Amino acid sequence: MPVVSVVIPVYKAEKYLRRCLDSLIAQSYKNWQAICIDDGSPDSSPAILDEYAARDERFVVVHKQNAGVSAARNDGIKNATGKYIHFLDADGWVDADFYQSMLRVARNTKADMAVAGFVTDNKYTKPIKYKNTVVAKGIYNKLRASFALTDSYVWRYLFEADFIRKNNLQFDTNLIAQEDTLFVLDAIARADSVATVPGVSYHYMFNENSALNSRDAAHHARVKQQYKIGKQYRRDFAKKHGVMRLWRMRKIINLFR
Hints:
- By secondary structure, the protein is of the alpha/beta class.
- It has a single domain, classed as Spore Coat Polysaccharide Biosynthesis Protein SpsA, Chain A.
- It has nine helices and nine strands.
- Strand 1, helix 1 (17-25) and strand 2 (32-39) form a beta-alpha-beta unit.
């Protein structure tokens, strides 16, 4: 039985998909499974997934009609059999020691969530790098350690599968943007502790062909509106949990991270 289930929603990712899957094969930690959800992708992505599954049984491919990234990730949770779950985007990739390092911290600290830093090709997004392992408890400390009020990307986290299922954590299928925000903040609120993982990074790639970045005018307007919803959700979350001071400080904290 795999220890880590890696959930990968796939849609129009043919340009980047091999790099993503190859980064899994290159992992120093080998006991993983990849749950690849082909979300009705119209390009060559489904064929690429089938190719990898044919030569490596750790790749499990689910083909389905297009229903969006949230539904795909929820399907991944249902199909995952590992003790831990990580969500990997098809246009991203991870360092060779990513899962080994994430698992070591998660096991040693017994944290519900382990969080890594990330690097990006997007000049508008500041990277995050951790130098030490910090086990954060209490909502203020968990939010400050994770930077979740500004960078609530789900692919930064390794979750205990039992923690996800016990709390019935699901992605909102009504959202095509900011679904990460709701999922991650809900998880952080429920987690006993969040542990930071030094030394490894997730590589975030801006994919101009992704569903999120469609050039359709109506779709673009919907995405823009949902980004506003996400920002308001983070603000309301901070107010609800009594950490408005951290919300007001978030831009200053980003300058020094």
